[in-house]
């Protein structure tokens, strides 16, 4: 938190090159780990399952289908595909858009 406050103060004073400092601190290096341009679709399969299709225009597998399940589907037991927080967030997007 102090680091961000120092960056802001120096930026305001005009004596600070933000790009160079971010590169030196390693923050800019993390930007290159983002893979943009994927095509994502997701939909309700049943009350406890959301399916996702992902198309990859980059190197690697072209496309895949996967699912995210809520633990309610398995009587509260954690399984490989159960991700309650992600399920909740995706479900809320579907609900807000009338797709649930």
UniProtKB/TrEMBL annotation:
This is Uncharacterized protein. It comes from the Bacteria.
